Amino acid sequence: MKDKDFHRMLPWRGCVLILFAFLALIDVALPLDAIAQKSLLQGTHANKSLVAKSCRACHRGMTMALSGEEDSCLTCHGDAGTRNRMVQGGYLKSQGANLLRDIANELRKPYNHPVLTIQGVHRQLEALPEEVVNAARH
Hints:
Layout: H1 3-38, H2 55-58, H3 63-66, H4 69-77, H5 80-88, H6 94-99, H7 103-107
Helix pairs in contact: 4-5
């Protein structure tokens, strides 16, 4: 290959690399934008007079990513003993703990959504079955 031919190809390679980097950034930026829009706290979970440490009350370390998603919810929405530990840790205000119901009790009933026995079925940013008619139901 002649030097002139090589130098003619060089700008194209640079353009291809820039295009590849641009597409990679878009591929990363779009999901991050969707996550940011869906992760805004609303309602009771955003009320710092009830949930003192807001997001950190549930999202401590990697608990949401590594353990069952319901386990994190049941720290406040489980039995009174678990809620009291959250109050003692400063994650939940005592007046907030008094308002919460024990949904773990409901999940232990014979006919329930099997979240205590089956894990890893739900994925981040999944659409609810009500939004997708033919979505797999476990």
